[in-house]
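Researcher: Let's walk through a ligand-bound prediction step by step. First, I give you the protein sequence. Second, the SMILES string for zinc ion. Third, you return the three-dimensional complex as structure tokens. Ready?
Model: Ready.
Researcher: Here are steps one and two:
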Amino acid sequence: MSDTKVYLLDGGSLVLDGYHVYWNRGPGGEVRFPVYSILVEHAEGRFLIDTGFDYDHVMKVLPFEKPIQSKDQTIPGALALLGLEPKDIDVVVNSHFHFDHCGGNKYFPHAKKICHKSEVPQACNPQPFEHLGYSDLSFSLEAAEARGATEQIMEGTTRANSTFEGIDGDVELAKGVKLISTPGHSIGHYSLMVNFGKRKPILFTIDAAYTQKSLETLCQAAFHIDPVAGVESMHRVRKLAEDNDAELMYSHDMENFKTYQTGTRFYG
Ligand SMILES: [Zn+2]
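Model: Step three, the predicted complex:
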């Protein structure tokens, strides 16, 4: 475990209104926020948690989110900075299936895939207010067919990508690497805790708290399925961080992201 390393794969950025980032609280106005994926290099394998957004999908379906993504910020590009290719990844985990967390799944037909057991059914049949969140369906033949989005099915990859191991509750992915059940933002949302040999643990809130301010004020994003569960999950994240003396890292916090180590730099 002492050689566990965590790399953050910078996936570019998107824009939301402040009232979406901080539900019913704001302030309003454009907020540009980062999107990144988490690569855990572990004695038991290479685990990739989330796969960012697909630029073409966002331009087609949600152009108002004004995506910015350089070549190095695509999944293959970010892996190439580390001398890796998609085939070097053993396991892909999706914290949930919002489009900015699964857009790069298509690069990993060979990898084992894990998600909460309720997330694929939810992507197949989302609540009316979840349609744009669950709009990139290229990760699942079942979801693309259920939603009538067959134009998103990619010959040769979508089918190969569609088998997920469905999990529930907290799950240890590998020794010291734990998925933390934090529903609310989505039905089966997961946060991630990584323990290291030498440094303090890191608790990735993922979308249970977009930003440090979100967690401090218990103000979640406007995108959620159960806001009360979302608040409970934020309490849970706070307590876990405190009990484990963990460093908190947020999914969509530009101020903090500027201080995070990306590219070839790593945590470990
Ligand atoms: Zn989300």
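Researcher: And what stands out?
Model: The first strand starts at residue 5 and ends at 17. Residues 227-243 form the longest helix (17 residues).
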